[in-house]
Amino acid sequence: MRVDVVRVFTRDGAGGNHLGIVEGHLDDDRMQSIAAEIGFSETVFLADTTEGVATRIFTPARELPFAGHPLVGAGWWLREQSRPAVAFLTGVGPVGVAYEGDVVVIEAPLGQLVTPSRPPAGLEDAVDVAVVAMPAPYEIVELPSVSALEALEPTRGWEHVYCWTRIDDATVRSRFFAVEFGIAEDPATGSAAVALAARLRSAGEPSGRLAILQGEEMGHPCRIELSWSGDIARVGGTSAGESPLEIG
């Protein structure tokens, strides 16, 4: 079994979040076992249909209906195969794909339910906390400073905890933890970027543009370009290929 490997959301050609890509129809158990064996935060399985490219996304522990870095990486990989995608069919519906030079952009719907919440355990110094239904509940936690962000340690009980802080009006730093689902920390999280846009939109920012820097603490510096307006969030970045894997 060949698994192609892409580093997604690279920063100046370096870093990025590793992604496994497999083409073809496989049963659910086989897809889950491949994702667990590879051990990347996500592996995406692709199949062409008349409506678009069908995607199944698996972490080492379970399937996800939607995730950003697998779709951006798959879009880049398909273009490298001279088969650029128009849309991905995901568990939350069709997601558009656009190519802007070296940057691959996905267009995800906004309108998720956003609910103010209390800080998760260990994050009592949070400035703002809200839960965004992605459809899994993402806890979007604004911290007061970069130093507070850098001091975080993965904590039991954190399921989808996205911590962020502003560097300036155009740039934020972030970290994402899904400890209870086998991902102590993720270097770059496109779905959480969509959740951040949903939170900011609900808080009175109907449109905006941010560069999200993530992954420094893991040694995998990443950059996500996020913009939102109306009912659409656009998440994009650059990618780079790695040597494929061969698994049994």
CATH-derived topology of the largest domain: Diaminopimelate Epimerase, Chain A, domain 1
Give the SSE order as H and E letters. EEHEEEHEEEEEEHEEEHEEE
Oligomer, anyone?
Answer: single chain
Low-confidence stretches: none
Number of strands: 17
Average pLDDT rating: 95
Helix content percent band: 10-25%
Q: Beta-sheet strand percentage?
A: over 45%
Describe the structure.
The longest helix is centred in the first third of the chain and has 13 residues, at 68-80. The protein is α+β, with helices and mostly antiparallel strands and 248 residues long. The model has no long low-confidence stretch (mean pLDDT 95). The protein has 4 helices and 17 strands. The radius of gyration is 17 Å and the shape is globular. It is 17% helix and 47% strand. A hairpin with a 7-residue loop joins strand 15 and strand 16. It has helices at residues 28-38, 68-80, 146-150, 190-202, and strands at 2-10, 17-23, 42-48, 53-58, 63-64, 87-90, 93-100, 103-109, 114-116, 128-133, 137-142, 161-168, 171-178, 183-186, 207-214, 222-229, 232-246. It has 2 domains: 2-109 and 235-246, Diaminopimelate Epimerase, Chain A, domain 1 (Roll); 114-231, Diaminopimelate Epimerase, Chain A, domain 1, CATH 3.10.310.10. The protein has an 8-stranded mixed β-barrel.
